[in-house]
Design brief:
Blueprint: E1 3-6, H1 13-16, H2 23-26, H3 32-45, E2 49-52, H4 55-64, H5 69-80
Parallel strand pairs: 1-2
């Protein structure tokens, strides 16, 4: 089993979740084809996890391993707060 950990991906998710006006919803997103290809390749290699998408997503994932949960949760809240993308 491979765990796919994509960052924000350009799909209908943010519109359906009514998050288009958030910082994450209105920001730059990764190409879904690229994310899927990276995930599929990792699965074929037998990797347990793959952080797919942009270099920024990979850096944020790595930083998340050392940043305290409280700070990480606050950052996620700011990125997903309604109206934060205006």
């Amino acid at each position: 089993m491979t765990s796919l950990m994509p960052g924000p991906t350009d799909t209908e998710f943010f519109d359906r979740a009514e998050m288009a006006d958030t910082r994450v919803g209105s920001g730059r997103k990764d190409d879904p084809r690229t994310v899927a290809e990276q995930g599929f390749a990792a699965m074929l290699r037998g990797d347990q996890t793959v952080t797919a998408g942009s270099l920024l997503n990979k850096v944020q994932t790595a930083a998340g391993r050392i940043v305290p949960d409280k700070l990480r949760a606050a950052q996620h809240r700011r990125m997903a707060e309604p109206g934060s993308g205006s």
